[in-house]
């Protein structure tokens, strides 16, 4: 791990400037991904929109706008003292829960692809509260698990239970949408936060057990909607259903596989331009990279993610206090599992869920949330013990 | 940060690294290791073939007159891509176009569905082509209506009109030749499955029977293929290949239009005369073959049908009529699919059998009114006693009883019901020498082979039917339980596996279980005429390319030689001449100026017609001519037509009249079909100008 030698370099450079606290490697990797994502979103939508007599740059423009908004949100998340953020944590959490409740009220929530996960706003914009709920859960849990009302090494069982309530309420609300992908990602992040909080390892084992039993039971008792079961089944046998979710998975794999080593070249993918993969600019954005940039390009993207995650782990490890460490770890786990879930689904390793790919997928809520997450990482980095 | 937290963080970090490595591994598998599979899959998702059929080659007679050509029709087509974009999926447009064209909406709907869109059990009429080419709903639109449609595109979006080639059988000189030419039709899912060993492109028109089927691979040409790349909505984004269709080659046949027309009318006339005489005359066949090379100069089957009926749009009712018993199954070619007992025409085989058995052909034989065979008396034809006559005379007047005696004597010599180990079987061997049990190998599909009721056949038959005859009283229907039939069943059960005396004597006069096709008999008489060569009959002479090059010549092929010495053949030829000069054929050929040789046949048929009357005899006349230097073998058969001489004999005479240009007893060589007396050898020139105006 190069972080030992790299540490001294950027600590020296960052001191006292307006970029104080910015991790250059992390920032650079995110910036490169944002540029690649912009090109991929454009590639995914350009021909199709032109062919249907629509503005070919429709998605491009909105994507760039989303990035600009997201970057300013990241900026805000960076410069605010996260110790101050702690004071606002209940408000952030409360807003997240409120959003999730509004989504479930008929008439206010918009149903897309079988899940009621969006709130329609005027001007054709939509907000996905579950994305922002991820941040409120991470921040809220971190606050509870890092506060020490007593002189002990780690959080007590009472702290853990409180933290689980903080995470549990939004998760239950998301289950009602239902958005299994987000539930999976949040659950994985929750377990990770508790594991890192210093709480008894029995909690970790128990939570993992509950997660497994819960997933099994949900599938058995029908808590998961038939739409979800279909998606899960088509993961097991993608050739069974030619037009539904199996179709999407098969098309996704064919599109990625047909890219080969070098790809067809940006904007030149016949599968992409023929729009054979539905939702290609959002959940299946990675197929564009697969087809047009080939193995070299798409493996490069995975490596960029690996760099981001390794930097994030380094930030967590060197965080100035338990709160910062837990926030950084939570964000890292969120990114890692969401990346794995999304690309894994595209490549046929994971069941199909509607989860966007951080920094690449088109979609405002996801872009804002991931950039705020990125901002929080920078924030923790800037205030590491030094 | 304590040690445990540090460790936990490390575990999570390693876990996350593992996940990312798993993604990289999977990515490597999909994009590098398994990439070729996915590249293929992507290509098949994106590309669609549009087939434009090639122009089918002509079928012409030996002088170049077209028997099958292509007519220009006006097709009204439906663009499915355009229709599917409409809010009602084109229902309104299809409805109004059906009404305008006077077509049934349900039929039009079916015709515009891809076969995959219709349920498995009900695919009739579906479109075998792709969605990307215009689907024709009629090929014979009125030009006024077509103009209306083209002018009012806003009212009929997705409907177009294009000229298309329609297969047409022009019927020059009123020729029909439906069974020989066959017909074409759209390729079906079954054809595409490759069951018949041929490969087709979707939406092609292919030969279904007859010459159209036999020489389809030459006639069809190579269709043009345009491969387009489409998107998910099936809109064409670009074209990846485009090959032009290559026209099919022409087929030159040995048929002659005028002779064919003459043969068809002679056959129809024979049927008419038989019916006037009170016979059902349900079907018939007539064939003219060149005895030197096996080429079929004319071939007709009765009843027939209009070969253009398929392209005109065959209704289900029409199609049923083609195969209905009531109409005599017009679809069946009697020439090569009708099996009938050959009767006295088979005595030519018996002559060779007797000669090979050592009988003196020039001796005198007894022709009594009946011959006692075991306990049964076998009658002569009409129970006439003709006394002691020469063998030649016996053939000329068609004496049966002299053959009974010879066949019975030979049967006894071979051991009778306890056959010896070294059988002579002169009669069976002579028939085998004529290849009675084999196909003629004509170049037309669906030919049936004859049935030679020899010892092996009888054994096989017994193995199959023993159970029925030995339990006859339980198995047979009530109305079949007559004393005679019960006795017959008992005998069949007892020794049905053996050739009995009755079987042997019946065999010698072409009765019993032996049956052959009219074409087989033509092949046999051609062999007698040409000195013993069994030739493969052929309808095709050559394949000629559109630029006039001869691609393939179909030559003569000898399949075998008759098991007869030259002396035997000479005797037989003389006897067949005497049939016409002083025998059963004399009346039919009285005053005919050219020497013809032949043999009558009147075959008894057992069983009853649907209306309960006993079946009438099969009328045969097998012949060749001229007697000196024979050129043509001519055979006519009329099923349930009655006497061989009066029905088929007269019919064959009419065929020779056309062939040689005979009126009454005068020959006019200018009127002969082949002015120099020989069918043409040269391959005629075929040009589009040869097209003859459609007469129907």
From TrEMBL, chain A:
One of its GO terms (molecular function) is lipid-linked peptidoglycan transporter activity. Keywords: Cell shape, Membrane, Transmembrane, Transmembrane helix. The chain crosses the membrane at residues 21-44, 64-84, 91-110, 182-199, 206-227, 293-314, 326-347, 359-377. It is a multi-pass membrane protein. One of its GO terms (cellular component) is plasma membrane. It is found in: Membrane. The keyword Cytoplasm does not apply. The keyword Transcription does not apply. One of its GO terms (biological process) is regulation of cell shape. Pfam families: FTSW_RODA_SPOVE. NCBIfam families: rodA_shape. PANTHER family: CELL CYCLE PROTEIN. This is Unannotated protein.
From TrEMBL, chain B:
GO terms for cellular component: plasma membrane. The chain crosses the membrane at residues 7-29. GO terms for biological process: cell wall organization; peptidoglycan biosynthetic process; proteolysis; regulation of cell shape. It is a single-pass membrane protein. GO terms for molecular function: penicillin binding; peptidoglycan L,D-transpeptidase activity; serine-type D-Ala-D-Ala carboxypeptidase activity. Residues 53-240 form the Penicillin-binding protein dimerisation domain. InterPro entries: Beta-lactam/transpept (IPR050515), Beta-lactam/transpept-like (IPR012338), PBP_dimer (IPR005311), PBP_dimer_sf (IPR036138), PCN-bd_Tpept (IPR001460), Penicillin-binding_protein_2 (IPR017790). Residues 284-656 form the Penicillin-binding protein transpeptidase domain. It is found in: Cell membrane; Membrane. Keywords: Cell inner membrane, Cell membrane, Cell shape, Cell wall biogenesis/degradation, Hydrolase, Membrane, Peptidoglycan synthesis, Protease, Transmembrane, Transmembrane helix. NCBIfam families: pbp2_mrdA. This is Unannotated protein. It comes from freshwater metagenome.
């Amino acid at each position: 791990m190069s972080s030992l030698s790299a540490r001294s370099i950027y600590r020296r450079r960052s001191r006292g400037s307006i970029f104080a606290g910015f991790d250059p490697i992390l920032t650079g990797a995110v910036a490169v991904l944002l540029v690649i994502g912009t090109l991929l979103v454009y590639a995914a939508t350009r021909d199709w929109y032109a062919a249907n007599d629509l503005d070919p740059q429709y998605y491009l423009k909105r994507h760039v706008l989303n990035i600009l908004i997201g970057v300013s949100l990241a900026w805000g998340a960076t410069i605010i003292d996260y110790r101050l953020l702690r004071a606002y944590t209940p408000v952030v959490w409360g807003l997240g829960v409120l959003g999730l409740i509004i989504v479930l009220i008929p008439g206010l929530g918009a149903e897309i692809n079988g899940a009621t996960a969006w709130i329609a706003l005027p001007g054709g914009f939509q907000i996905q509260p579950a994305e922002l709920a991820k941040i409120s859960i991470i921040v809220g849990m971190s606050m509870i698990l890092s506060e020490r009302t007593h002189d002990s090494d780690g959080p007590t069982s009472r702290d853990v239970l409180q933290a689980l309530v903080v995470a549990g309420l939004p998760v239950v609300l998301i289950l009602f949408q239902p958005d299994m992908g987000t539930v999976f990602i949040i659950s994985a992040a929750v377990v990770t936060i508790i594991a890192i909080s210093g709480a008894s390892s029995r909690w970790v084992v128990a939570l993992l057990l509950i997660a497994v039993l819960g997933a099994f039971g949900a599938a058995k008792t029908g808590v998961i909607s038939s739409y979800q079961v279909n998606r899960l089944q088509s993961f097991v046998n993608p050739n069974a259903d030619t037009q539904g979710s199996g179709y999407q998975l098969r098309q996704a794999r064919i599109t990625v596989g047909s890219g080969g080593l070098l790809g067809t070249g940006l904007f030149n993918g016949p599968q992409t331009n023929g729009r054979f993969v539905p939702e290609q600019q959002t959940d299946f954005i990675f197929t564009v990279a697969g087809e047009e940039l080939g193995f070299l390009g798409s493996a490069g993207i995975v490596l960029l993610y690996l760099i981001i995650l390794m930097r994030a782990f380094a930030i967590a490890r060197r965080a100035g206090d338990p709160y910062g460490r837990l926030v950084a770890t939570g964000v890292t786990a969120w990114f890692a599992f969401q990346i794995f879930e999304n690309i894994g689904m595209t490549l046929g390793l994971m069941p199909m869920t509607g989860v966007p790919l951080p920094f690449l997928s088109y979609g405002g809520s996801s872009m804002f949330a991931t950039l705020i997450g990125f901002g929080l990482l920078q924030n923790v980095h800037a205030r590491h013990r030094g | 940060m304590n040690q445990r937290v540090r460790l936990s963080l490390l575990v999570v970090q390693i876990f996350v690294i593992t996940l990312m490595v798993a993604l990289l591994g999977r990515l490597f598998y999909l994009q590098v290791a398994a990439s070729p599979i996915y590249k293929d899959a992507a290509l098949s998702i994106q590309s669609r073939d549009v087939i434009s059929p090639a122009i089918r080659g002509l079928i012409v007679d030996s002088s170049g007159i077209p028997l099958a050509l292509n007519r220009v029709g006006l097709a009204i087509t439906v663009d499915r891509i355009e229709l599917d974009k409409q809010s009602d999926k084109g229902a309104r447009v299809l409805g109004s176009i059906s009404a305008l064209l006077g077509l049934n909406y349900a039929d039009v709907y079916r015709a515009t569905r891809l076969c995959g869109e219709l349920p498995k059990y009900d695919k009739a009429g579906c479109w075998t082509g792709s969605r990307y080419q215009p689907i024709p709903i009629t090929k014979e639109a009125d030009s006024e209506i077509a103009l209306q449609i083209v002018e009012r595109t806003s009212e009929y979006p997705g409907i177009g009109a294009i000229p298309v080639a329609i297969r047409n059988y022009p019927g020059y000189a009123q020729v029909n030749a439906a069974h020989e030419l066959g017909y074409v039709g759209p390729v079906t899912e079954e054809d595409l499955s490759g069951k018949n060993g041929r490969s087709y492109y979707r939406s092609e028109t292919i030969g279904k029977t007859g010459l159209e089927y036999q020489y389809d691979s030459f006639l069809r040409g190579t269709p043009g293929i345009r491969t387009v790349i489409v998107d998910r909505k099936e809109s064409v984004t670009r074209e990846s290949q485009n090959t032009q269709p290559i026209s099919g080659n022409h087929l030159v046949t040995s048929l002659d239009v005028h002779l064919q027309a003459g043969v068809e009318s002679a056959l129809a006339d024979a049927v008419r005369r038989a019916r006037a005489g009170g016979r059902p005359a349900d079907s018939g066949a007539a064939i003219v073959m060149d005895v030197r090379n096996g080429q079929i100069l004319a071939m007709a089957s009765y009843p027939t049908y209009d070969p253009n009926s398929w392209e005109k749009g065959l209704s289900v009712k029409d199609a049923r009529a083609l195969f209905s018993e009531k109409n005599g199954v017009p679809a069946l070619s009697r020439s090569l699919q009708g099996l009938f007992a050959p009767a006295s025409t088979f005595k030519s085989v018996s002559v060779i059998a007797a000669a090979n058995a050592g009988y003196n052909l020039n001796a005198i034989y007894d022709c009594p009114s009946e011959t006692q065979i075991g306990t049964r008396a076998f009658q002569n034809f009409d129970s006439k006693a003709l006394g002691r006559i020469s063998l030649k005379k016996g053939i000329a007047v068609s004496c049966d009883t002299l053959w009974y005696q010879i066949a019975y004597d030979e049967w006894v010599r071979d051991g009778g019901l306890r056959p010896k180990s070294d059988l002579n079987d002169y009669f069976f061997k002579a028939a085998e020498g004529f290849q009675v049990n084999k196909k003629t190998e004509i170049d037309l599909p669906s030919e049936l082979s004859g049935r030679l009721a020899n010892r092996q056949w009888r054994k096989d038959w017994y193995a199959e039917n023993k159970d029925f005859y030995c339990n006859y009283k339980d198995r047979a229907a009530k109305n079949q339980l007559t004393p005679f039939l019960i006795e017959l069943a008992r005998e069949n059960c007892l020794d049905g596996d053996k050739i009995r005396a009755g079987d042997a004597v019946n065999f010698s006069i072409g009765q019993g279980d032996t049956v052959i096709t009219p074409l087989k008999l033509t092949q046999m008489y051609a062999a007698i005429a040409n000195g013993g060569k069994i030739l493969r009959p052929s309808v095709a002479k050559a394949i000629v390319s559109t630029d006039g090059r001869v691609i393939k010549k179909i030559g003569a092929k000898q399949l075998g030689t008759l098991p007869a010495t030259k002396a035997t053949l000479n005797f037989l030829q003389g006897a067949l001449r005497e049939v016409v000069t002083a025998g059963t054929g004399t009346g039919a050929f009285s005053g005919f100026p050219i020497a013809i040789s032949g043999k009558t046949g009147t075959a008894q048929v057992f069983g009853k017609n649907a209306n309960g009357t006993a079946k009438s005899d099969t009328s045969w006349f097998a012949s060749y001519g001229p007697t000196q230097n024979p050129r043509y073998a001519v055979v006519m058969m009329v099923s349930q037509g009655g006497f061989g001489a009066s029905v088929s004999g007269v019919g064959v005479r009419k065929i020779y009249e056309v062939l040689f240009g005979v009126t009454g007893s005068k020959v006019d060589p200018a009127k002969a079909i082949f002015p120099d007396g020989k069918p043409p050898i040269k391959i005629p020139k075929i040009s589009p100008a040869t097209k003859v105006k459609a007469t129907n």
